[in-house]
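Re: that chain you flagged

S.,

Sorry for the slow reply, it's been a week of failed gels. I finally had a moment to sit down with the sequence you sent. For the record, here it is as I used it:
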Amino acid sequence: MRFVVLVAAVAVSGFAFAQAKHGTREEQEDAKRHRTMAAAHEAAAKCLEAGKGEKACLEQLRKDCKSVGIGKYCGMKHQH
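Prediction finished late last night. Pasting the structure tokens below so you have them in one place:
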């Protein structure tokens, strides 16, 4: 049993290490995705401040973040 756990831990560690390595091109693409997500979240905040309602603002957030963020809240989930 210990061997299986050890093998799994090593496999996960190796995968995490492989995922952590990025070249300049990948870092630039990540930065672009972060800016896209940040702009989408800023627009959602302004939408809410304008009183357009949570449902409408979240729907626009989903559209703005399509294929960039993870999940229906564009990679950001908070309490409420």
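What I noticed first: Helices lie at 2-20, 24-49, 54-64.

Talk soon,
D.
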